[in-house]
Write a structure and sequence with these properties.
The protein has 200 residues and is an alpha/beta fold. The chain has 7 helices and 7 strands, in the order αααβαββαβαβαββ. The protein has one domain (21-192): Rossmann fold (3-Layer(aba) Sandwich), CATH 3.40.50.150. The protein has a 7-stranded mixed beta sheet, with helices on both faces.
């Protein structure tokens, strides 16, 4: 708790009006890779409390569409359609697909994580399962030129996940944002759509 209270990113988030320090992870990634632009369709998985949706909404400048989903409730954000539901369940997925109305997605972002127990042999499979579900959804719905950004953790299955992503994307990069705590094994994988040139 003391670490959280004294965290510079936590203090900055409070000052800037973001709901969590996670906002700065997405902002840093976007500053380097320019993923979020006005006019695009974005799906935000594991969105609560909503800091990533806040960042996306601000960058879209009211031009584009954001659909967010989480198991937990999320306070409203201007320009964001929120669905409270379990992404792993067919009913919630159908609701999300209905909201999409057959519109292909430019960007899927996923900050999902299971409840962490601290036991690696329990936590790692749960994280990987969520990551793979998000990946499967992205491969089905991303438009040509679309991209996939997902949180995962370095562990036993990490290399297998990267290997699974590589054939599906032009390039896959691993990112450790400054706002991600050093002691955490958390990283982000970014899959660039095939046929689209991006800066390294």
């Amino acid at each position: 708790m003391q670490e959280h209270v004294n965290d510079a990113f936590v203090k900055q988030a409070q000052k800037d009006g973001f709901r969590s320090r996670a906002a700065y992870k997405l902002m840093e990634i976007n500053e380097k890779y320019h993923l979020i632009k006005p006019g695009i369709n974005v799906v935000d998985l594991g969105s609560t409390p909503g800091s990533w949706s806040q960042v996306v909404s601000k960058l879209l400048q009211r031009k584009g569409h954001i659909i967010a989903m989480d198991l937990l409730p999320m306070d409203p954000i201007a320009g964001v359609d929120f669905i409270q539901g379990d992404f792993k369940e067919a009913q919630s997925l159908r609701e999300l697909e209905t909201k999409l109305n057959n519109s292909p997605i430019d960007l899927v972002i996923s900050d999902m994580a299971p409840n962490i127990t601290g036991i690696k042999t329990v936590d790692q499979p749960g994280v990987m399962y969520l990551t793979e579900v998000a990946l499967d959804f992205s491969l089905e719905w991303l438009k040509p030129g679309g991209h996939f950004l997902v949180k995962t953790f370095i562990g036993a299955d990490f290399d297998a996940l990267v290997k699974k992503m590589r054939p599906e994307f032009e390039k896959v990069v691993t990112i450790k944002p400054k706002a991600s705590r050093d002691r955490s094994s958390e990283v982000y994988l970014l899959g660039f759509a095939k046929g689209v040139k991006r800066n390294n």
